[in-house]
Amino acid sequence: MGHAPIPWYDSGNMSDGLSIYAKKDIGTHFQELCLATLAGTTKEDAANAAFIVRAVNNHAKLLAALITIEHGLTDKSGDFLAVTDILADQARAVIEEARK
After folding, report:
1. Which residues contact 48 (CB under 8 A, 6 or more apart)?
2. Residues 42, 27: Cα–Cα separation, whole Å
3. Looking at the domain assignment, is residue 3 inside a domain?
């Protein structure tokens, strides 16, 4: 069984704890799924929830970039400069997204 669909998002409500959600398409509408609730209400708890959401939402992009890098480093075509430019562009995009 797989995990809940991405993107995930946090409630942003620190009054009674933070929750992490996903929306599941059930055909006629979306069902909101509460995936986790953090009991804390501090700024650190909010940062933790945001970090979890960013990590989950960027996982597939990071994996794809790593696979591309791996393929590029093992490519025997001799066109290393072109591969390097493509990899650098992908890495920059993923890094920028992960830092949000």
Report:
1. 38
2. 37
3. no
pLDDT tens-place values along the chain, 100 residues long: 678 888 888 887 766 678 888 888 888 888 888 888 877 778 888 888 889 899 999 888 888 887 777 666 665 665 555 667 777 778 778 777 776 7
Residue in 59, 15, 9 with CA at minimum distance from that of residue 35:
9
Residue 1 lies in a domain: no
DSSP 3-state of 31: strand
Judged by DSSP in three states, 92 sits in: helix
Q: For residue 52, which of 64, 38, 66, 63 has the smallest C-alpha distance?
A: 38
Residue 2 resides in a domain: no
Token pair 């072109």 is found at 82
Between the alpha carbon of residue 88 and those of residues 38, 58, 65, 96, the distances in Å are 37, 17, 10, 12
